[in-house]
Amino acid sequence: MVLDDLGSSLRGTLDKLRGKSRLSEEDIEEIVKEIQRSLLSADVDVSLVMELSDNIKERALEEEPPAGTPARDFVLRIVYEELVDLIGDSTELPLEEQTILLAGLQGSGKTTSAAKMAWWFSTKGLRPAVIQTDTFRPGAYDQAEEMAERAEVEFYGDPDSEDPVEIAREGLEETSEVDVHIVDTAGRHALEDDLIDEIEQIEGVVEPDTSLLVLDAAIGQGAKEQAQQFDESIGIDGVVITKLDGTAKGGGALTAVDQTDSSIAFLGTGEEVQDIERFEPDGFISRLLGMGDLSQLAERVERAMEQTEMEEDDWDPEDMLQGQFTLNDMQKQMEAMNNMGPLDQVMDMIPGLGGGIKDQLPDDAMDVTQERMRTFSVIMDSMTDAEKEYPKAIGASQIQRIARGSGTSEEEVRELLQQYKMMERTIKQFQGMGSEKEMQRMMQ
Ligand code: GDP
């Protein structure tokens, strides 16, 4: 997650303010230093860090907290507002006919993002096509075609042509029936002149409605120059940050957004075509600051529902907060979570859970790997309904029977029961915390 470090260190500093009603100048200094330290270590550009921290400091010193507002909430709100201001709205992408051009260095994730974005538009009821114009990188054509197939979207490319501009022109003609054209371009290792020439020519032919710069989240300080060059040549409207699953940094991408005076369009969070999220600034910053984000959770759950073909009434994440947690629930929820991503990511999106109790839980509580889920599922199939409803009544003889029946070991059955207990405890802990009221209270 981008700027993960900011979230946790800031929470640590802010927690020290608990119980205080007034902020001293030293308190503010300490908070501002903490913010600077984590932004710099996340590779955010120095001048940007200074600007942001100066604004926070000035406001924290000058503004009067409304009566009764704890100091911690007051600072949190200022930090939140300043970050919202820095990051801005997400890049506008209307759900209608349009052409999008992708630019970026080789390996930044353009080809993957093209297919992901096409998939995303297809989930919104539009008909997208990916046009692959990369004649430079061997294998680019095959990779793009395969990814478009996985995304179940249309694809155009020409492995025999060496003229990317011609491919772009033909691609648009051949796919004239579709709603959304996503044009992928070649990358190169560095910003060579011929790369810039080529993309300018493609831009001239494609006349995109939106040009997006694709950036690896780990890019660091190099982002500034790249962003500047691409912006000068084709005009960058937004940024796609990829590989957020692999880094806790991502500050370079923020620098690029600032440099191009643009915004973030999408976040890439994995190698599969579904591993993409539309950027939502409010939710993003809430998550960053550990406030949770219910709308993202809802979107993921909805997707998981579709995939597991469950009725909406059958499984609702809110159930997790209601306390009726049996092994039957665990089985259903494991299936759904399997599609939503790891439990700790899901928990990040529940208000009030962000940093607090999640950090205090044993790592094992989150560690339900797919492999274990499969074994657990087989074990649960060998249990009676009564056992699943009252797992606490399962004793040694039942464990023996269940292990035999499911072809697993008694140890594995015990592991499942252990996992269940941990999940039950976790869920008990966040009952009452995960309400929308909690979030509103924090934001007041
Ligand atoms: P391109 O050269 O810019 O077209 O980059 P590719 O789309 O080929 O991506 C380069 C590598 O990064 C590939 O191995 C992708 O699978 C991987 N990749 C792209 N996006 C993501 C992402 O969001 N997360 C992870 N983990 N890998 C990604």
UniProtKB/TrEMBL annotation:
CDD domains: SRP54_G. It comes from the Archaea. GO terms for biological process: SRP-dependent cotranslational protein targeting to membrane. Its EC number is 3.6.5.4. It holds the Pfam family SRP_SPB. Keywords: Cytoplasm, GTP-binding, Hydrolase, Nucleotide-binding, Ribonucleoprotein, RNA-binding, Signal recognition particle. Part of the signal recognition particle protein translocation system, which is composed of SRP and FtsY. Archaeal SRP consists of a 7S RNA molecule of 300 nucleotides and two protein subunits: SRP54 and SRP19. This is Signal recognition particle 54 kDa protein.
